[in-house]
Amino acid sequence: MTTTGWRQRAQRARISTGCAIAGLFIAGCTAPGASTGGDDDGATSLTVWVDSTRTPGVERYLEEHPDVDIRMTTIPSDPGYVLTQISLANQADDGWPDVVFLNTPEDVASLAAPPFDFAAPLDELVDDEITDGFVEGSLSGCTFGDTLYCLRNDIGQTVLWYNQALMQEFGYEVPQTWSDYGALGERVAAEHPGYIIGGLNGKWGAGVYFESSGCPTRDVIDLTTVRIDTSDPGCVRAAELLDPLLANGSVSALSPSDPAFAQIGQENRILMLPAASWYGEHRFKAAYESPAGEMAAAPMPTWDGEDVPYSGSVGGGAFVVSRHAEDMDAAVDFATWMTTNVDHQSEQPTYPAFAEAAEAWGAARAADPFYAEDPFPVMKDQAPLIRDTFGWVRYANEWNNIFNETVVAAAESPEPLLEAVEEWGSRLTQAAEATDYEVAR
Amino acid sequence: MTDTETAGRRPARADRQGRRPASGAESTVEPPSKRRRRLAPYFFVAPYALFLVGFGIAPALYGLYTSLFTDSLGAGTEFAPLGNWGEVLTDYRLVDSARNVATYVALWLPSMLMLIFAIALVLHARPGRFAAAMRFVYYIPGAITGSAAALLWLFMVSPQVSPFSPLLDLLGVENATEAVSANTPLILALMGIAIHAGGWILIVYAALAALPRDVLEAAVIDGASSWQVAMRVKLPMVSRYAALILIATFAAGTQVFVEPTVLATGVPGQISSTWSINQLAYYYATQQGDFGKAAALSLALLLVGLVVALLVIYRTKFYRIDRGLS
Amino acid sequence: MAVPATRHDHPPSRRAAESARRAAGRSLRLGFLLACAIFFGLPVTWLLLAATKTQTSIFSDHPLSVGSFGNIAQGWSNLLTFNDGELVGWIWNSLYYAGSSVVIAVFLSVPAGYALAKYDFAGRKALLVLTLIGMIIPTAALVLPLYLQMNALGLLGTPASVILPLAFYPFAVYLCYVYCTTSLPDSLLEAARVDGASEATLFFRIVLPLSKPVIGMIFFFSFVHAWTNFFLPFVMLSDDRTFNLQVGLMMLLQSTDAINAEGGFSALPIHQPEAALAALVAVAPVLVAFVFAQRYLTASDVSGAEKG
Predict the structure, then answer these.
(1) Which chains does chain B touch, 3 or more C-beta pairs < 8 A?
(2) Do C262 and A1 touch (CB under 8 A)?
(3) pLDDT at A419 over 60
(4) Other C-beta atoms within 10 Å of A13: how many?
(5) pTM score, two decimals?
(6) Which CATH class is domain A33-151+316-364?
């Protein structure tokens, strides 16, 4: 580490050590670095918080911008860390970062609203040329009412992952519609029990089936209004699709973290899995160590009565600029660079939200022998197709938890799943109201 | 030593009723040794009292103060003595959290207390290297904390990969998802025992080891069996430790936080992030930035713990200065 | 306790029955202790073995099978790939924070616990009740007050903001209080006073040596309390280089797929075996401290005899 920021940090640590002892007797030790003011006059100074995956990007930014003095802190991706630190800084009226990376981008719904009031509106500060360069729809999560509050770093559009080798061996066609998918599930259960074609748990079930179907459970209208309606046809058809598949075991209700699920992956018993674009690289390849040359991505199946293969969404981060930033232009420039710089974004582990960067990202992976065929064209087609009912809300955490407590818990019961889905909806309404939303139907 | 003096200093009945022996009763001309003895305790407790006020009482009072202000969306901060308390106590999640905690405490507390004393007494019946090794083994699970513990406990409750798989099979658990969601209080109670029992075993054992030998030997010579010695002699002698353990474990149980959080880290979304009352308090502070509500709920939890603690203290005369051993 | 010698005069038949009964009791006790040892010992045994395995063998092999010990060294160097070996810095930070706060905690709590147990003074009960409150107050109530306090003192982000609140450890005061009331005979103190010992002499020459067991306990429990503390560094420190091991490990592990299957995107070679190794690294100092504390326990047998 040779940048100014790093050296300053080391210096800060030394000062702090002295303070620990002195602090016992004198209350006069100040914490250096709590404020954002620069040491050298004239130089631009920024405090940025990023997770460890983003640190190489910050270093690259520093190389390209020697005039900017960056104090970088690596933050845990723990949900709650950023919110806790920001609200504490609010109380102390000091110590905000100028730019912060959100691993759970839903946090922006809290950060933009009172009592946090942290996220700066970006419409006036980011050129339309730049916002137009993002994948269509990818900034909708950052937009509340008509105001843009963050820049998207990466997106988690879902695709239909499948094992091409197994599908050929079993003589199956990749389904084009969800009806075909359901029919194939019945065949798999009868002909190859133990193999799965999907997962219901957590963000998968809610984010893949129900979101791609347009079940409104987090349809953001503005910062204080949200639409929740689990009697919507979008919810009904997803529940009806899943009922038989859960009963016959071709869709698993196991948590993605469950070692039992990892075993299914490692034993190569995942025939298909509708899941986020990052699943290929970070699950099949890294965690399940699937054999090379077998996995491929197909477009999401289409729902009856529609001709567009809508995606759900699982994951994706965002950058937020502070309202309190002293040098707003520098802060916005940094956030913009991190999200749109093609060289930097093409090396990101997940699908970039900026369209041009996504092309470069895809090109860099086209020749990967892990895949049976290059999955990028499918990912690219699905990227703008994330259903617009999927917004970022302050109850995102409960959204996942309650889904598991109601819908997943009912997976093995003979009752229709729809009852549990309605329960999910009514408890979501409570959760939304408890986080200062008005709920529309 | 003068008996009268000790009697006067001992907080006798008068003291328990809240009256102190009149200070005028102390002699007007005080010998230096007596004065030193009167002043010494203040020197002994002064540094601690400073920290107690600075990092315990003052923050707690400030917490109480923040709990009296509401911080609502758009409306700004305003003084509303019952606003946070009212909202917290009627929160739709509280009933579930309270039921979860009650089940957990009912499963965890009695079984762990019995286990602690059973193990400590059995170990103390034959002290030696074996007993020392056992205390070490019993303690280890409590030392494993944090994110890495999430991995450990996730694997412990997964029949496919767990060394406890025979036990899990017996319970009919097929996978971690089910273990965590369908048997949450039981799994957490087992986890809680594994994590907390070792430290208390150590404390009770140390208490037993520090008992005067002559009393125990006298009991043995009187022909008491080791069971009788344990129940009739050793246990009553460590009753204050029992009181301390009851107070601390009851508070820890009602404030359970680590176990559900750790398991939920291992299997995200499978255990609600507001499963326990204390988690709900953390949720207010960390997810909603609402420290007033967090303080209100925490102080409500503190009250529950305090009521039980004072009951125990009153019943066991925990605060009495007692000269029983002299 | 040795087997009492006074029973040798029993008739042979009763003696045989007695010894059979004792043997049965002994094996019952042994069985109970070993069963408990399995319950408490299996998790850490698994953890030790998990660190020797690979990412796939941890799922596919028997949970109690042994992998390769070379994997431990490999795992360690894999852990060091995170932020240029920041892990080592966190270990030092943890030792520094925990070490400092333990010294202060012992210095504060031993005299306080002794005074509360053996002197009657104005404010004694108030102090006991306030200590009780300090002991059982949930931390969520203290997040904001402590943060604002440290901010007002200008200590935010410094080690002092972690060390000072950690040094306030009311449980240690109660531990010492209970020990002194239960195991410190008044006769001894009074005898010394009659001999003309001052209160300070009494404390340093008589109370401290006799309190070795409880000082060992306080040392140990306050070390564990400080070493495993997560909340204070999480709230007070915003520079990752100043994190302690607990917060640092959370950051490290959450950025990988080892414990975050829904979004650990780090390309670093850190998986489940590395996470198991990280757990062992975090546990090791506590176990070392335990072994030290055990020595004080055995010393107590001697002091117990002295009291006779």
Answers:
(1) A, C
(2) no
(3) yes
(4) 19
(5) 0.87
(6) alpha beta
